[in-house]
Amino acid sequence: MRLRRRSAATTQAAPAEPVAPTDAGTGPYDADDLDLESDATFADHVDLGGLLVAPPPDGIELRLQVDEVSGEVIAVVLAADDGALELRAFASSRGGDLWAEVRRAIAGETAQHGGTANERSGDFGTELMTQLPVTTPDGQAAVQPTRVIGVTGARWFLRATLLGRPAVEPEDAAHWEDQIRSVVVRRGTGAMPPGEAIALTLPPGAG
């Protein structure tokens, strides 16, 4: 596994309907519910502060999206030749419904740019499928599909955005979904308004 830093690019956030909170038997996980020091299940996870991510399988590269101005890590990206997965975590109020708010916001923004957004039911609950018209680097018109998944924890919300093949062929995206299930969210104990991004950091030893 190689770790790369990438400068931030404009990215469409993704919303969706309320998703049932995670339970103790399935991921994504809440760090407060785990003993990360002694549980071997998470020993090889890459510690990125607010998110702990399992090393991806061969052919998928772990990258960090870094804001060019502030130098802050704003997203985790797992990228392969045929697709990618972007992970971001946000604070949420206990019992809140941030996913529904995000879904409406993304659907509205997508429509403003001439795209479409439709809901579907998946293993994580309600997902949002979008089609956004874009211009390729060589000037050709194209459509960028995304599949947005939302997972609500006790006081956090995880947004996972799939692009490329896993966005248009959900039936063949099992290994991408496994990456989402393996994520550990570490919100911290400090007061945070709903919707504030949970801070991400470079892993220990990263330059």
From TrEMBL:
One protein family per Pfam: DUF3710
Record InterPro entries: DUF3710 (IPR022183)
Region (Disordered): 1-33
Protein name: DUF3710 domain-containing protein
Originating organism: Nocardioides mangrovicus
